[in-house]
Amino acid sequence: MSKPLIVVPLGDPAGVGPEILVKAFACADVQKAARCVAVGDSGVVKSAVKITGKSFTVKEINEPAEGDYSGGVLNLVAVNNIDMGRFKFGVVDGMCGRAAYEYIEKSVHLALDRKADAVATTPVNKESLKKGGVNFIGHTEIFAELTGTRDPLTMFEVRGLRVFFLSRHVSLRKACDMVTKDRIIDYVKRSVEVLRKFGVTGGTMAVAGLNPHSGEHGLFGDEEVKEVFPAIAALQAEGYKVEGPIGADSVFHQALKGKYNSVLSLYHDQGHVATKTLDFERTISITGGMPILRTSVDHGTAFDIAGRNLVSEVSMVEAIILAAKYAPGFACG
Q1: Fold for domain 160-278?
Q2: To pair with 201 at 20 to 30 A between CA atoms, which of 80, 85, 131, 268?
Q3: Rounded to an integer, what distance in angstroms lies between the CA atom of residue 214 and that of residue 183?
């Protein structure tokens, strides 16, 4: 059986995406796990090969089936949209924001057409996207639009700890308002389906508490009493293996030790702090609930070090390997 084919868009060309892509493609563990194809501007990719000092021949192809995966070749579906005469690393540039979107768009279409098994993304820059006329705040929203997915799920994985998020980029005040019975029921059901696609069918999912000590039965905060407990009861009545609310100061540790197969974090920072403190570089973001699989590094464009061969590729390596690991569950959409 052939190794999964993972397509990797270049991300914002002015950031560290080109460098981590080249470094990850050169990694023996990545080459063992997957066949990789880059999508991006050939001038930028060749520049990154030179900067990183990797011994790659860049082969421009029209689609992944034309690639040479024997080693020493960086297969590139070229989307040449960068004026190298004015291109600079480390700056916000609408040209680069627009280019990053076009790389993602091409990668998504390759996956939807089953010419690739999964997409592993490098960082984009929100300011550059906006300057380039791209009216999305990030990857998840772009993937949702391109795949026709309503409200895709975000899951982090690090060292076997899996964390889903009830809300993402909203204010803390709004995130608290989004903790409702119906939303929790919907997210748990869809998260369980994502886990099933990943081959995770045993174990119990935990729902984190919102307030300290899950509100101590309404002593300080009543969201658990009004929304979370009723949601858990309804899910359990339908046969779902879910428990909660479990205090956020302990639930992530318990899941890491194997008591739970995953955790539903009730707001952005709750789960981000837990996973990134455990291992920042190896915390990988997975977008679930779509017809294709997408994994991603969970760091930004790092403009301050872009183009200087200072960035670590560890997160990119982990994102590609995780994409290869879970890709079989998406073979039939």
Answers
A1: Isopropylmalate Dehydrogenase (3.40.718)
A2: 268
A3: 18
